[in-house]
Here is the input.
Amino acid sequence: MTITKQDIVDMAREYKGVPYRHQGRSIVTGVDCAGLLALIAGRIGLEYPDNFSKNKKLKKFKKTKELHETIKPKSSKHGRSIKNLRYTRNPEKFELQATLDFVLEPINNATIQPGDILLLKIDVVPQHVAIVGNYEHGGLSMIHSYSRVKKVVEHRFAKIWAARVVAAYQIPGVM
Here is the structure.
């Protein structure tokens, strides 16, 4: 079965209203922004490595092929894995970005479309993830578990959010 970007958007929308819970991975007890992505990835067969944040080599991440050679992921449908992503409230600098760079396919921020994944900088370091949707009144939206409203929400992808985008990705194998 082929998974499309619209399927990713539809799956993300199914979680709207689920409570926010830091490091949560359950629709019952709640999810955080990375948890929302992990649930969707799990549904399409893209696995997420245990205790990724505890890997000392990843903490010293440099954007080189060395990362791919030093971390031995479990094989997955796409040859990459990030199962049960865990991180601290204030993650090591670029830890989340390193994980996403490893598992997903980076794309140009100017080419984002519904079904793509955004990494955003809320404060100092990039530590927030959202799924791009198609806004009901035209343009783009973002679907994410947002601590300030304490649940998974979808809203217009406004300029204030666009200015916070650090990187954009697509999920491997999704058309």
